UniProtKB/TrEMBL annotation:
GO MF annotation list: ABC-type transporter activity; ATP binding; ATP hydrolysis activity
Protein name in UniProt: ABC transporter domain-containing protein
One Pfam family named in its UniProt record: ABC_membrane_2
The organism's place on the tree of life at top rank: Eukaryota
Domain ABC transporter: 394-652, 1047-1264
Taxonomic lineage: Eukaryota, Metazoa, Spiralia, Gnathifera, Rotifera
PANTHER family recorded: ATP-BINDING CASSETTE, SUB-FAMILY D MEMBER, LYSOSOMAL COBALAMIN TRANSPORTER ABCD4
Entry's transmembrane regions: 16-34, 46-67, 109-127, 178-204, 210-228, 278-296, 302-322, 334-355, 687-705, 812-839, 845-870, 929-962
Sorted UniProt keywords: ATP-binding, Membrane, Nucleotide-binding, Transmembrane, Transmembrane helix, Transport
Family statement: Belongs to the ABC transporter superfamily. ABCD family. Peroxisomal fatty acyl CoA transporter (TC 3.A.1.203) subfamily.
GO CC aspect terms: membrane
Length: 1265
């Protein structure tokens, strides 16, 4: 099978940092926002540009305030130094301190407020720009001519749901983050302004000496050169990992969609093995990601360590060893400039942090630019093609003719231009209904798409009504979201004031009146999953009756419209089909039908038969149609007079759950799920990873402690010299003796921390693999496990398996072991305790510890109170975004049906997605505004570092020591050094405010996962108890001794309901019998098969003496109406059911070739070979070819294993000749078969027939001679 083979080396060799410095890429990013998209109204556009102008002004103001706060910090050190040197008195020093401290407090407060306002504007613009981009893409998809762009993107596997949801949101969010900053760093505009200000004022403060600035820039360049290649590796790996996760999500989504089919095949373990191999690839990618994340983390942590060196040590080195002259006055100037060095190196570090969102921005922006160009080119090419066809008289619009002249049908996307059909000629006028028939694969559906304008015309001339007068009804109808009333009146422009009684008559006309008993007209469910294919097809005809009888311009529509059917009754019984067509004829509807059924010939005026040898045959028929008598059940005139009803309003009740200890324990239990029994090596890997990471954490913490002490010791040299406490030679000697060890610690500390973070992510990848395997095992392990079927409505499971589990573990171990932006909670607690002890040992240290704790706890309380409220909005935001994603996935799956259904369907889907987008944008802005308050508080705590580091030591000295009479002027220099310990302790504890981000994510994702897992466990437990009850009531499946199938007193009910479908079935079949079950759609045929398969349990109203005996599942193959074909080679597809039954891959290629030729599929070997390139067979083949391929897949299992074949409408897409070939082969084989079908033509191939009467809930069994 194919596992991520589409990820090729072209992406691997791409240099993402070249995109980062490319002006063309940045031009594209800005053009996407400001050039190629537009706001919905001029008022919104004005608001966006006004807010953009305001935020730029705010960023300039924040840079000035940041500089002012930093400059004030240097003054505190100067005051202490002057007192220590006896240049000013204690009184004068305190007075100067009093004049400055309150100005600093106000500046700090205003700076935090401005940061919050900037982030509020950030989130507003990100949401608005996302809306602009989505609107442009939606415009191209849904407002293009004939839905051509929507159709083409679905055929080309563009993955538009991901592009229109995740990619656009990532691009706009990261684009705004680059420009305006985040909780962790300032925006690019602010950083560039701040770097300029810091450089200029540093030169002035150091009396023109730029050596320190050059050292800071050199440190930044070194870190930049280190981070670019590691970022290249990290981003490439993230993209590959994202693609692999996308493949996993898409595959699990297919499994959920085809859950019934897979459970009936008994192929859960085959799918399980495939998913485990895919998880192993994702795990390998995650391990590489852990290593590359450590490499990315190292330059950033190195610059953080260099921040301490450049702030406290580098000025002393420059002063004592670079400058030619040293005086105490110059030493004080350098002491004053120290906060500015900190300011410069901090903003340079933030420039490194911007690289990550900048890379995402340029990568996504370049991708979106390419996709947008491609969509626009599709529309341009389509308009050019349509113009060409009209200018050269190839396509004519004529309301009353349907003509094909020298019409050719080519193979889609064939390189050599091979033809399926050539030189087709047909001419029909209004009221001459045409039946187009032919074997599967002859090009009938392609003709259908050409008429819709979705494919180019290869003909001398084609004449048909213009597109707005064409109605296309495909084999699988389009079912939009909405209630049952909306489904029935979908084609009507005005759906108000239609009486319920009239709608009921429409349902009765297509034998769907029982739906009105099961549901109200206001019921909203996913009708595409609730209704069978036959019910969906009859619903499509019901819409036609409503369109031609309830529209106010009924006569005009009848004389203008042409309806084209493509196998639209393939799952409808013959009697209902005849009644439907008879009613269409009675209403004088003009239609063209594509179908295999010969029973429709008499209902058409002309027939066109296509052959596989590229020829066609046209015949004219004089219909002798026996129309059923008009009854009160369907009166066209009466329905024509009816009014239309008001559309029902949709209401969604969304609930959120708060995090409590119950959920904490459940999340903890989920994280520590049992290890897989067949993978004990994973347990050993996890234990080793924990030991190594904890060891690295311990060493890293010790290095940080030593680094802090060494920094304080070296910084104290400059402070003591400026206070004239030591000589110049003594100062140089102290620096020389400590600098080598300090340099080693400067490298070792970030290295060990980066390895610790990488180790944490390695553990996260091990836990992710463990949980993914547990969940897929829980869903798929064991052929008797039907949990996959009963959980198919849980639509979020694919996202949980592919993305949420890994995100949960990443965030958890960021929290535990650290991230680029913060230290992990374990290291932080240990380090904070050590630094608190170290600070407490200094003069004034205990009071400094108290002040730090009070500030940190205050900020922590504020951020966590807001986080509790914010978390509710985040979950609402995620829920609305998930609904938006689901809407796009649903649209993508029905893209062809939507395009064929015309502008009304495109408009409905556009409006639905527009509404979901608005809701998602609204909640994104609400959560963003609240988050901006948290950002403001957190950034206030960061800016407050300067006040804590420099202002508080001065305050302790001037107030606490002075009042107590302990003030010794020479001690003032010690309080200058105190800022080093204050900085390290406050920075360490201040990381606690950053924990709000991972904790919110852990909470949000964890609650969703444990809720769904709990639901899965309850479902499995419920099914287990039902199975036990069945055993108590003697519901048995055992290998037959005399009869192969026995049903005694079995009642069939609507699942999860007490509504009876078939009453008291008593049936016995010998091994030589074959049975066909017939009856109208919805009578319970497929439900009976599900009961036999064990997918549904007998109703509690079941008779107590019921009994079911059937061949064991391992000796039975169910082939249901909904097929599941894999993505892989032809050999892998043909071996699929063999592997499901514990057999290996096929080895007898000769027999396989004979079977393929027997079923008219020999061309597959010629075109693709047995071991050729992997193919998506479910996309490549027509419905009829898929059905025949699954028959061959079942038959190659062998008669020594298979005793019974159960076939549910398995030949609905095949013509009569092919159908006859299939059943003649089954008759020759030694396999017993049971069929469900509407077709009378195949009854002769069965020895028994069960006819179900839907009205009486009874049945009749007859035997054929």
């Amino acid at each position: 099978m194919l596992i991520g083979k589409e990820i090729v080396g072209s992406e691997k060799s791409r240099r993402y940092f070249l995109l980062l410095i490319s002006p063309i890429t940045w031009f594209r990013c800005f053009s996407l926002i400001f050039g190629r998209t537009r706001a919905r109204t001029p008022r919104i556009a004005f608001a966006q540009y006004f807010i953009l102008s305001c935020v730029i002004i705010l960023m300039v103001g924040s840079c000035y305030l940041f500089y002012a706060v930093t400059s004030d910090s240097g003054q505190y050190s100067l005051y202490l130094s002057d007192v220590a040197a006896n240049k000013t008195s204690m009184y004068e020093g305190r007075k100067r301190f009093d004049n400055l401290i309150w100005r600093s407090v106000l500046k700090t407060f205003f700076l935090g407020t401005i940061f919050g306002l900037i982030q509020a504007c950030n989130f507003y613009l990100a949401a608005q720009w996302r809306q602009r981009l989505c609107d442009r893409f939606h415009e191209l998809l849904f407002e293009s001519s004939n839905g051509c762009v929507l159709y083409e993107t679905s055929q080309k596997n563009e993955d538009m749901p991901r592009i229109l949801t995740s990619d656009i949101k990532q691009f706009t969010t990261n684009f705004c983050t680059v420009l305006f900053g985040s909780i962790f760093f300032a925006g690019l505009i602010s950083v560039l302004i701040a770097i300029t200000l810091a450089s200029v004022f540093l030169v002035l403060a150091a009396n023109g000496d730029a050596t320190g600035i050059l050292i800071c820039y050199s440190a930044f360049v070194i870190c930049l050169l280190l981070i670019l290649p590691s970022t290249q590796l990290y981003n490439w790996n993230l993209l590959e990992q994202s693609k692999l996760k996308g493949i996993l999500r898409g595959y699990v989504q297919r499994i959920k969609t085809n859950a019934e089919c897979i459970v009936l095949y008994g192929s859960q373990r085959v799918e399980l093995q495939y998913i485990k191999r895919l998880i192993a690839k994702i795990f390998s990618s995650m391990l590489i990601s852990s290593i590359s994340f450590a490499l990315v983390n190292f330059p950033i942590q190195l610059l953080t360590a260099l921040n301490g060196m450049c702030t406290y040590v580098m000025p002393a080195i420059v002063f004592f060893f670079v400058r030619k002259t040293q005086t105490t006055e110059l030493a004080q100037a350098y002491l004053t400039a120290i906060p500015l060095y900190s300011f410069l190196i901090t903003v340079l570090g933030q420039l490194l942090l911007i690289i990550e969102p900048a890379l995402i921005t340029v990568t996504m922006g370049d991708h979106l630019w390419t996709v947008l160009n491609r969509l626009e080119n599709i529309e341009k090419e389509y308009k050019k093609r349509m113009e060409y066809e009209r200018n050269y008289a190839i396509r004519h619009d004529d309301t009353n003719r349907f003509t094909l002249e020298h019409f050719n049908i080519s193979i889609p996307d064939a390189i050599d231009g091979s033809l399926l059909q050539s030189d087709i000629n047909l001419d029909a006028i209004r009221r001459q209904c045409v039946l187009i028939s032919g074997p599967s694969g002859c090009g009938k559906t392609s003709l259908f798409r050409i008429c819709a304008g979705l494919r180019p015309i290869d003909a001398k001339q084609i004449i048909l009504p213009e597109r707005r007068h064409l109605l296309f009804v495909p084999q699988k109808p389009y079912l939009p979201l909405g209630d049952l009333r909306f489904q029935a009146l979908f084609l009507l422009e005005h759906r108000y004031n239609v009486k319920d009684a009239d709608i009921y008559q429409l349902f009765k006309a297509v034998n769907l009146q029982y739906l009105c008993e099961r549901y109200t007209f206001d019921t909203v469910v996913d009708w595409s999953t609730v209704l069978s294919v036959g019910e969906q097809q009859r619903l499509a005809f019901l819409r036609l009756f409503a369109y031609f009888t309830l529209s106010s311009n009924y006569n005009q529509l009848i004389h203008e419209t042409l309806v084209l059917f493509d196998e639209s009754t393939s799952a409808v019984d013959a009697k209902t089909e005849h009644e439907i067509y008879a009613n269409l004829i009675r209403l004088q509807v003009w239609f063209v039908t594509i179908s295999h059924r010969t029973s429709l010939i008499d209902l058409h005026t002309k027939t066109l038969h296509l052959y596989l040898n590229k020829t066609s045959e046209q015949q004219e028929q004089i219909p002798n149609i026996q129309l059923p008598e008009i009854t009160d059940d369907f009166n066209a005139n009466e329905l024509y007079e009816a009014k239309q009803s008001q559309a029902a309003s949709k209401s969604n009740t969304n609930t959120t759950e708060s995090l409590n200890w119950r959920y904490v324990m459940k999340i903890f239990q989920f994280i520590h799920l049992p290890f897989p029994k067949d993978d004990q090596y994973l347990k050993l890997q996890t234990i080793i990873a924990w030991i190594v990471t904890l060891l690295l954490l311990g060493i890293s913490t010790w290095c940080t402690y030593r680094f802090t002490k060494q920094t304080a010791s070296l910084y104290n040299v400059l402070s003591d010299y400026s206070s004239s406490l030591i000589s110049l030679d003594s100062a140089k000697q102290r620096i020389t003796s400590d600098i080598v060890g300090y340099a080693i610690l400067t490298i070792a500390t970030p290295t060990l921390f980066s390895l610790t973070v990488g180790g944490g992510q390695t553990i996260a990848s091990l836990y992710s693999r463990r949980q993914m395997i547990y969940l897929v095992d829980f869903l798929l392990d064991g052929n008797d496990n039907n949990l996959l079927y009963h959980s198919r409505h849980l639509t979020q499971i694919p996202s949980f398996i592919s993305h949420d589990i890994s995100e949960l573990n990443s965030q958890l171990f960021y929290f535990i072991f650290g991230h680029i932006y913060y230290t992990g909670v374990i290291g932080q607690i240990i380090l904070a305790i050590i630094l608190s002890i170290l600070l407490g040992e200094q003069d004034g240290g205990p009071l400094g510890v108290l002040v730090v704790f009070l500030f940190v706890i205050g900020f922590f309380i504020f951020t966590n109170i807001l986080s509790i409220v914010f978390n509710k909005w985040v979950r609402l935001d995620e829920m609305k975004f998930s609904e938006f994603v689901t809407g796009h996935k649903r649209t993508d799956l029905q893209a062809e049906q939507i395009a064929l259904s015309g502008k009304s369907a495109c408009r409905i889907e556009h409006e639905e997605l527009h509404e979901r987008l608005n809701s998602s944008i609204r909640y994104q802005m609400h959560s963003g505004f609240l988050y901006s308050i948290i950002v403001g508080i957190v950034r206030l705590s960061v800016v407050n570092t300067y006040l804590i580091n420099y202002g508080i030591p001065a305050a302790i000295f001037f107030y606490s020591w002075y009042k107590e009479g302990l003030a010794d002027p020479t001690k003032a220099s010690r309080f200058v050094t105190l800022s080093v310990y204050m900085y390290q302790l406050y920075s360490s504890w201040n990381y606690i405010n950053y924990f709000a981000d991972p904790l919110i994510r852990i909470q949000s994702i964890g609650i969703r996962i444990v809720n769904y897992l709990e639901h899965l466990r309850k479902t499995k437990e419920h099914q287990y108890h039902l199975a036990i009850n069945e055993q108590k009531r003697e519901y048995k499946r055992r290998k037959s001794d005399e009869a192969s199938i026995t049903l005694n007193h079995v009642n069939v009910y609507v699942p999860e309901s007490s509504q009876l479908l078939i009453s008291d079935i008593n049936l016995t079949l010998s091994p030589t019998d074959s049975l066909i079950i017939t009856g109208p759609s919805g009578c319970g045929k497929s439900t009976l098969l599900r009961l036999l398969a064990g997918l549904i349990r007998p109703n509690e109203n079941q008779a107590t003496n019921f009994n079911v005996r059937i061949c064991p599942r391992q000796n039975t193959i169910f082939l249901c109406q909904q097929l599941h074909l894999i993505q892989g080679t032809l050999r892998e597809q043909l071996s699929y059911l063999r592997q499901a039954h514990g057999l290996g891959s096929i080895t007898d290629d000769l027999r396989v070739r004979q079977l393929l030729n027997e079923f008219r599929l020999g061309h597959l070997i010629e075109q693709y070979s047995m071991d050729g390139q992997p193919q998506s067979w479910f996309r490549l083949l027509s419905i009829g070819e898929q059905q025949r391929l699954m028959m061959v897949t079942a038959l190659v299992v062998g008669t020594d294993v298979i005793d019974l074949l159960i076939l549910d409408e398995i030949t609905s897409g095949c013509d009569e000749h092919t159908e006859r070939i299939i059943y003649e082969y089954l008759q020759r084989s030694n396999i017993q078969f049971l069929s469900v079908s509407h077709r009378k033509e195949i009854e002769e191939y069965h020895t028994c027939k069960m006819t179900i009467d839907a009205n009486r809930h009874s049945y009749v069994i007859s035997r054929h001679k």
